[in-house]
Design brief:
This protein has about 550 residues and is α/β, with parallel strands linked by helices. The chain is built from seven helices and 32 strands. The protein is globular and about 95 Å long.
Length: about 550
């Protein structure tokens, strides 16, 4: 636990990547491990043979909170004054002032102590009022939340013991709402699990108990079947039958069942009108689930040519016809003229097809979702209002979640008039995105929709926007101006503009804004001005108060 993912300076040397600059040599690493183990052994010495896992966890929390003070100047770590503020050793030694640990150190130290005691424990991180790390710990058949950092709040008297130490955030469940708090633990601690802003999230698995820990006998609930993997035409599916405790939600047991592949579901065979002299024609059927096709010989459709093929009999009329107008085909004309040609088969609902440099998933008879550009390195992309597929016109009504997430090439995007929402994480991490043109049908921006779009400078939202969800523009470091033309905007989520350190202007026309989430304006420019309707100045001054900015000015 002596490695970090951050960059900084130490004695004039830049360090970063997987190893802290303090541990460049084998000798330094050994000395660090020895010091860590010495501290762990001293803390473990406070335990008794009769201590239960719960008692051990509570002692670890008590020791870490009473012997540490949250770093009073975390920025000092970045310029080399104290570069191991993130390391477990800073909390295991017990430090205060500018030598104190930050959340990552508290969490790593807690994990080291649990590991030593054989108690399963993992690190968890997310945006809990800002970048944060905490733990999930398992015992007695379930996983519980533990936030040692929040159990050692800053304030009170300076020094390691502040008088505010607590176990309020220890062994809590997903639905636990600690005393004097407005949110449940899972609401205040949304998990993202990412190494950095530039890297995608990872999953560490545990599902929290619904309730806080209380010693009790597990009561098995009704078995629930969870679909782990849906079967496809050619691939097996997997279902899991889970029995959970009906009181705490702990998974008591489960078994798995393999679901056989579905096999293709072909429709009627359609004659292809491809018979040649002396050669029978073919007919094709299409799978309604995956679009796969099966082609077979249509016997008795060979063409007659008396001069070159006198033995050929007169072709029979194909008997295979489309079962409905929606199954297009090409069939011979009954007259002596040219064959009659109709459109190609329509793609099935759920099928993903390519058209015009992008892929689309069919969602209805005349609607598709934009799945992503074919050229992943395209710098400019248009999500059209409509698209032609198999000779039919479809409305592009949605964008797939994470359709552009992590794209390092995209600079500008234009969104068509029929798209109604920007889903969660759709453009998350598009670090070069500078320009977005929104269609006027958009009513909502999903969670983290434009999170980390560091090059985005200005945003204008249309007249139908009603919701800007949590973290929608979080960490858009160059975003300076936001204009919302809608009179229907009613909600701005938590951390919606947090980390937009250059944001100076927000213009709102809405008179229906009822909710502004926690830390919505945290880390924005000190001279941020929010222009609002004259009739709402006083109400919105109260609404924007304590939302992360102490200097925001609300005026007409």
């Amino acid at each position: 636990m002596l490695s970090i993912q951050y960059e900084g300076q130490y004695e004039g040397k830049k360090y970063g990547g997987l190893r802290n600059g303090l541990f460049e040599s084998a000798e330094n690493i050994k000395n660090g491990i020895d010091l860590r183990d010495k501290c762990v052994n001293e803390i473990q010495g406070l335990l008794t043979p009769s201590d239960s896992d719960e008692a051990k966890i509570r002692k670890f929390n008590e020791w870490l909170t009473f012997h540490n003070e949250y770093n009073t100047d975390p920025d000092s770590a970045e310029n080399g004054v104290y570069p191991d503020a993130w390391e477990c050793i800073s909390a295991l030694e017990g430090r205060s002032g500018v030598r104190g640990p930050v959340c990552e150190a508290y969490s790593r130290a807690f994990k080291v102590l649990c590991d030593e005691s054989g108690i399963p424990c993992v690190l968890v991180d997310g945006e809990a009022g800002g970048p944060h790390m905490w733990n999930y710990v398992q015992f007695d058949g379930a996983w519980y939340g533990a936030d040692v950092t929040w159990n050692d709040p800053s304030g009170g008297k300076p020094g390691a013991v502040s008088g505010r130490e607590t176990d309020k955030w220890l062994l809590v469940g997903a639905n636990t709402k600690p005393e004097e708090e407005d949110e449940t633990f899972l609401q205040s601690h949304p998990v993202s699990n990412k190494v950095s802003e530039e890297t995608p999230g990872f999953t560490n698995g545990p599902v929290l108990s619904k309730m806080a820990y209380e010693p009790h006998v597990h009561v098995a609930g009704i078995p629930v079947t969870k679909v782990i993997r849906k079967p496809t035409c050619l691939g097996e599916g997997l279902n899991r039958r889970v029995i959970s405790c009906q009181e705490c939600g702990a998974e008591l047991s489960y078994d798995e069942e393999t679901v056989p592949a579905l096999g293709h579901s072909y429709g009627a065979y359609v004659y292809n009108n491809d018979a040649k002299v002396g050669v029978d024609g073919t007919e094709t059927a299409t799978c309604s689930r995956c679009g796969a096709q099966d082609t077979r010989t249509k016997v008795g459709t060979a063409k007659k040519d008396d001069a070159s093929n006198p033995g050929t009999t007169k072709p029979s009329t194909p008997t295979t016809k489309p079962t409905s107008p929606s199954t297009p085909t090409t069939k011979p004309s009954t007259s002596t003229g040219s064959p009659v040609t109709t459109a190609t088969p329509a793609p099935a609902v759920g099928q993903t097809v390519s058209s015009g440099g992008a892929s689309y998933t069919v969602t209805g008879a005349a609607a598709v979702t934009y799945a992503g550009p074919s050229n992943k390195k395209a710098t400019s992309v248009t999500v059209p209002a409509t698209v032609a597929i198999s000779g039919r016109t479809y409305k592009v009504t949605a964008i797939a979640s994470k359709a552009f997430a992590g794209n390092k090439y995209l600079k500008s995007v234009k969104i068509g008039a029929n798209v109604t929402a920007i889903p969660a994480s759709a453009f998350k991490g598009c670090t070069k995105l500078t320009s977005v043109s929104f269609g006027n049908s958009i009513t909502s921006l999903g969670k983290n929709a434009f999170y980390g779009c560091k090059a985005l400078k200005s945003v204008t939202l249309g007249t139908k926007i009603a919701t800007i969800d949590d973290g929608a523009f979080q960490n858009c470091a160059k975003l300076m101006k936001v204009t919302v033309k809608s009179t229907k905007l009613s909600k701005v989520g938590k951390s919606a503009f947090a980390g937009c350190k250059k944001l100076k202007s927000v213009s709102l026309k809405t008179t229906k804004l009822k909710s502004v989430g926690k830390n919505a304006l945290k880390g924005t420019a000190k001279k941020l001005v929010a222009k609002v309707p004259k009739s709402k100045v006083r109400a919105y001054q109260k609404l924007f108060k304590n939302k992360g900015s102490k200097t925001v000015v609300v005026k007409k």
